[in-house]
């Protein structure tokens, strides 16, 4: 198995060979494998975030007013964090499936506003953002010529006569944000929403009189994020035998995951779907408390969520008695990699920054619980301990982000030439996104301390046009939220919802009745 050397110079920003106003760099790590040309054009792994906001103390606004305020806010954020205004360019690398990420400065505020106007649209309608997202996915699947999405598109939706109608205080507006995963990850997209909120509050506070600063376009190029390999705390060009051994072990596990136990899936044409399960604040608190009391202060509800995913799989698709004892569940999981960056280079990094960990459950049959309440709790305890031990094994490595980048570059080259075969089985991949409140404000205030608008909900999802099954967990406003992202041509929606409900029930079962 041959791995290309991690050469930081190969992935640095440099002048575009075709445009004097543009700089570019070669896609690296996650950017590379989600940027495989044909898959990205289909929309594979594009992300979305649907945020429901409630207008409060702001003067009466229309969808059009909000759209224009967003134009200004986008320009502000672009100057400070220009990476999200990049585009993907294919055809400049030896591998035609691998993109360069290119940034081009606008010539003026006016040109920057034109770009922002192309990013934002409105819908005066009674349907919500999640309904619209599903409809857009269906439309995209039927496009005659597949085309990669722009870095970001924002659609404002409200139940109004048209986009000029003034909305009353208390009115709800849904903000559907569509992200091309080349330029974002889950953490980055939420961080971006928080930055956008801050500027939007300032703009709305001026009641229509806000003027953009006289930005010196071209200077913002210095605000482009430092490429990942240069931003790592570890010197990636001095990595030695330990790194190479861990890299080989990780990729070996990744390859073996193709034979892992999973959920049965079909290979029909369908659309990306997501289902959500929101625990009450009370139940969320009880689960966190139960984890700490039963397992210790270093355990989190994320460990419980991963453990419950295993039991949900075993209940929905039990391992037969006559299955080989070697039957295993092997999961290679993305992990936020910002901990491995220099602290000052990790702040407001919107782009993909994913390390990884592998959690294997060998002799899978032995992890099944005994058929009683205490047996389930014991099984969850044992699974939580194994999950944490596995994560700790990988995440202790100071080079784990570099390892993830090397793995993803290998994976992108492999998948570009050899698409993954359909196996009839899919491993539910558990991902935790942490506290959304770290980035997205519940209440957005004006200069008088009044609430301009509040955020009722945030729903994040990932599109898949294949047989992937992604289980995600985050927390918003004190409530833990689970989701399952899948394709309804590969997994029936009823089965997806059943799986999610079983998973949630297992998590709740960890709480003692007396709590």
UniProtKB/TrEMBL annotation:
GO terms for molecular function: acetyltransferase activity. It comes from the Eukaryota. It holds the Pfam family Tri3. The keyword Transferase applies. Keywords: Transferase. Gene3D superfamilies: Chloramphenicol acetyltransferase-like domain, Nonribosomal peptide synthetase, condensation domain. The keyword Ubl conjugation does not apply. InterPro entries: CAT-like_dom_sf (IPR023213), Tri3/Sat12/Sat16/Mac1 (IPR009992). One of its GO terms (biological process) is mycotoxin biosynthetic process. Belongs to the trichothecene O-acetyltransferase family. This is Trichothecene 15-O-acetyltransferase.
């Amino acid at each position: 198995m041959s791995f290309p050397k991690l050469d930081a110079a190969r992935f640095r920003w440099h002048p575009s060979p075709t445009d004097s106003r543009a700089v570019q760099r070669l896609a690296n790590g996650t950017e590379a494998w989600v940027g495989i040309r044909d898959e990205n054009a289909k929309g594979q792994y594009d992300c979305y975030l649907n945020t429901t906001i409630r207008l409060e103390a702001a003067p009466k606004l229309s969808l059009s007013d909000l759209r224009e305020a967003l134009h200004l806010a986008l320009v502000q954020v672009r100057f400070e964090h220009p990476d999200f205004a990049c585009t993907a360019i294919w055809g400049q690398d030896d591998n035609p499936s691998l993109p360069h990420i290119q940034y081009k400065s606008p010539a003026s505020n006016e040109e920057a506003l034109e770009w922002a106007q192309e990013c934002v649209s409105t819908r005066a309608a009674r349907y919500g953002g999640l309904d619209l997202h599903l409809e857009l996915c269906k439309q995209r699947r039927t496009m005659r010529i597949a085309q990669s999405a722009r870095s970001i598109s924002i659609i404002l939706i409200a139940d109004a006569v048209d986009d000029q109608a003034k909305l009353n205080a208390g009115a709800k507006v849904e903000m559907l944000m569509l992200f091309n995963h080349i330029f974002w990850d889950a953490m980055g997209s939420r961080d971006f929403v928080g930055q956008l909120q801050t500027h939007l509050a300032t703009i709305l506070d001026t009641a229509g009189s806000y003027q953009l600063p006289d930005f010196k376009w071209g200077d913002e190029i210095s605000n482009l994020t430092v490429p990942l390999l240069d931003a790592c705390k570890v010197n990636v060009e001095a990595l030695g035998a330990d790194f190479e051994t861990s890299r080989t072990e990780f990729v070996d596990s990744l390859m073996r995951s193709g034979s892992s136990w999973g959920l049965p899936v079909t290979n029909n044409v369908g659309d990306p779907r997501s289902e959500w399960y929101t625990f009450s604040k009370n139940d969320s608190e009880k689960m966190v408390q139960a984890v700490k009391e039963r397992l210790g202060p270093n355990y989190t509800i994320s460990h419980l969520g991963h453990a419950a995913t295993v039991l949900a799989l075993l209940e929905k698709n039990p391992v037969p008695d006559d299955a080989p004892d070697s039957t295993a569940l092997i999961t290679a999981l993305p992990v936020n990699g910002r901990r491995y960056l220099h602290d000052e280079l990790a702040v407001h990094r919107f782009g993909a920054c994913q390390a990884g960990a592998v959690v294997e459950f060998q002799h899978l049959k032995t992890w099944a619980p005994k058929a009683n309440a205490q047996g389930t709790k014991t099984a969850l305890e044992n699974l939580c301990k194994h999950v944490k031990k596995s994560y700790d094994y990988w995440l202790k490595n100071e080079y784990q982000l570099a390892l993830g980048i090397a793995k993803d570059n290998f994976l992108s080259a492999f998948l570009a030439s050899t698409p993954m075969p359909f196996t009839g089985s899919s491993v539910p991949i558990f991902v935790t996104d942490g506290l959304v409140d770290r980035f997205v404000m519940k209440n957005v205030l004006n200069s008088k301390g009044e609430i301009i608008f509040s955020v009722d909900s945030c729903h994040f999802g990932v599109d898949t046009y294949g047989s992937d099954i992604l289980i995600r967990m985050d927390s918003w406003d004190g409530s833990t939220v689970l989701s399952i992202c899948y394709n309804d041509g590969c997994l029936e929606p009823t089965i997806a919802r059943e799986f999610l409900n079983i998973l949630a029930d297992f998590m709740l079962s960890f709480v003692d009745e007396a709590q």
